[in-house]
Design brief:
heterodimer; A: about 250 residues; six-stranded mixed sheet; four-stranded antiparallel sheet; about 40% helix; B: about 550 residues; mainly alpha; 21 helices; globular
Amino acid sequence: MIRLEGLGKTFGAYTAVSDLSLEVRPGEIFGFLGPNGAGKTTTVKMMTGLLKPTSGRVLVGGRDMALDPLAAKRAMGLVPDEPFVYPKLTGAEYLRFVGELYGVALPDMKKRVPELLEMFELTPWGGELLESYSHGMRQKLVLAGILLHEPKILVLDEPMVGLDPKSGRLVKDIFLKLAERGTAIFMCTHVLEIAEKLCHRIGIMIGGKMIACGTLDELHAQSKKDGRDLESIFLSLTGGAEYSTLLRYL
Amino acid sequence: MLGALLRRRARTFANTIGHWTAYEWVRNAAFGSAGFGLLFGLHYGFYRLLKYLATVELIGLLLTWKLTAMLLLMTLSMVVVSSLLTALTTLFYSYDLKFLMKAPVSLRAVFLDKSLESAFFASWMIGLILVPYVAAIMRVQHLGLEFFASFLFAMPPFLLLAASFGIGFTLLLLYFFPSSRTRDVVWVFSSLSLTVTYGLVRFAQPEKLIRPDALKVVAEYLNFLQAPTAPYLPSWWLAEALRMAAEGNRQGYALRAMALWACAFLVYGLLVALAGKVYFIGYSGAQEGALRRRVHSFLLLPEQRLLGIRTAAVLLWKERTTFFRDVKHWSQILLILGLVFVYLFSIQRLPLDSAELKSLVSFLNVGTAGFVLAALGLRFTFPAISLEGRSWWVLKSAPLDVGQIMRQKLFFSAVPLLGIAATLALMTNWILEADRFTSWLSLGALLTVGFAICMMGVGFGALFPNFTVENIHQIESSVGGFVYMAACLFYVGLTIAVLAGPMQMHFAERFGTGVWNSRLALFSGAGWLALNAVAMIVPWTLGRRALEAHE
């Protein structure tokens, strides 16, 4: 469904992402982990056409993002790390705008927009300008926006940030349901518990390179540590176990 | 604490320059050179004018200082209007305010930091224009560098005083009307009053005073030249300080320069003291979004009914909706309407006696109206791409071509700008009773100039996008804004030069002193087409490529 082939990005002398290859299949939730500055957001931006790769290519449903960006983007939905939206549109208007951009039929929008607002408990706010929304409300609205056009591929950069526990649970259930229906989901997250519970496969990135990729069992085998939880595996693979030495600065 | 805040600005500036790539050094050096070229051109124009004034017997010097006082008064009013527009966003909506307000920094220090930023953005470009003028006085009157140093010393308090008006007004507005709805209404009424005041001042026909024939006796005219121009305003104090510096009256200069500094300290000090009491209330009110429920009916959008093309229509609808809901734009629209009326009124008051002179002015109107359109382009068209701001990801990640986005920005901007261009051309031709040839030529030329200015605006806007600015003035006064304005002025100047040939032949035919030279007409026509092709296509293509590659 989505394939990265030898993807790389450099900014001057700095290499943000190097020779990254992976594939997310239909119905799969792929978790993308790594410490801050590992290159996760750069990867997301390249996957969604916001950044031009220095090397390699992104294939979305078989279409090259560089050669046929419109078709590739039409099949994809993005939740960025910071949900900036037009402050002078209302929630319902933002959804209408997104629906029009992605070619959703007007009768479908008329039916779906109130449903999505209801689902994310935004109905009382649907007619208010987005400048009055909190971070979490905007995050939910952006999620509603991608659900409106039902993309085959979801790219999510920290989708749980700012959500209240109930909304967080709802969003997790939505992702599982979408995966059951065949949607491919690529998700960057720092919340290891979510990755552990939701993701079928997990990739770990450090310094622009993917150092490990596989199911939880496969990652455990690669880490060669006793702990079977993702936190132990992650810390072992990223060298984070030495963090205790850092506490001396406290 | 203020020292720490100012040091972070210095550090940010140094880091920005320190991280320029070789390409950025070359690019900025090229634009810097273009800027110097423009300032030098202005200097040359001022020099010619002042040189001419100096040749007028007896009153040459009086005329120079009268002109200086009027120029400074104009500068003062421009900085005041500019600061009104800048202060609101800088003082109350800057991105870093959340960080600063929750840090253990005194409110007055934050206010000082933000108000100085506001004063800088409102005044630096207007202040820079004074430099070639003062240099021209220096050359014409053979004054030394001491005169220039005197100007540099006295200018900062003058600009700060002018900017203080907008800052103080905004501070009080947000204090007394923290509710967003009331604030919006008051903001629009303030802009309306400003427009009406501007109109009233103009309709009082001050030009009567500078035309000797409008006054009864020569003595009256001389009295006018010697009389202070708005003596209670800092522009007059600066004008007087400069005159005294030029005359070598150091004591007189020092007195006025110190008065400017003292007044700036006093007014600014009062503002800072006031800010300690009122700034937070205004800031707190500004955080509250405007709660006014709107029901969206999922009907066909008006743009969809009109255009049918789905993506273009929805982009236009988004542009229209977000533009008109921002109350800051209303005040600018009111000011533009005032500007158009005053422009036409000024045309009507021009002392033109012969039909030929009226037709000539009608043709030259392409140049002056072109400058007005360029100023509007800088305000509305050039920032259009950058004003997508941090929501740019919505469009960039959507199945949209960058060209579609640019075309929609062009359309949204071109319709009103062409309307203004047509109004200025048709009304001017009607007022001046221009002949048919001149009327058609100036109308066609001005509509083309309007369209080219829009295409250049979107093109340069795409070539220099900045999605992280918080203030429209930062976009306008950026390197890109400067390049756009310089390109527009150059283009308008060339348009006049290219069309001067046919106009000259037309007059020669009217006076019976010559006939049409078809080769020259063809040459002018081809030159005009080539000029417009370059003006429209080059920035657009470069901008499109730059925006596609923007990271």
